[in-house]
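TA notes, week 10

Several of you asked for a full example with nothing omitted. So below is the full record: C-alpha cells for the whole chain, then the designed sequence directly under it. When grading your own attempts, check the secondary structure regions first.
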C-alpha cells in the first residue's frame, strides 16, 4: 500500500532529511538496513492498525462511513499536502 500512496512521499522525504541532518540516525554499513527495515515494519503495522480500526468503525456506525471516511480523512490529507507545499514555497 505504501508503494502506491504518493501522499507519504513528502512526509518520508522530510522526515529522513531531518533525521540525517540532525545526526539522529547513522546511514553507514548495516545501520541503514535496520532503519529501513524498522520503517517498513512500523509503517505496515501502523497502516494495518488504522485499516482495521476504520473498518470496525465503518461497520458499526453509519454516520462514520457516510461523513468521516469520504470527507474528513481526505480533507486531512489535503491540508497536510497544502502545509507541505507552503513550507517548500517559503524555502
Amino acid at each position: 500500500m505504501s508503494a502506491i500512496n504518493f501522499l507519504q512521499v513528502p512526509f518520508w522525504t522530510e522526515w529522513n532529511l531531518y533525521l540525517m541532518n540532525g545526526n539522529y540516525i547513522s546511514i553507514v554499513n548495516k545501520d541503514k538496513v535496520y532503519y529501513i527495515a524498522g520503517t517498513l515494519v512500523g509503517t505496515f503495522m501502523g497502516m494495518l492498525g488504522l485499516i482495521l480500526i476504520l473498518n470496525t468503525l465503518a461497520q458499526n456506525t453509519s454516520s462514520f462511513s457516510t461523513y468521516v471516511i469520504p470527507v474528513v480523512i481526505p480533507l486531512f490529507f489535503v491540508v497536510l499536502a497544502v502545509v507541505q507545499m507552503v513550507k517548500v514555497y517559503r524555502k
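The longest helix spans residues 31-60. Use that as a sanity check on your answer.
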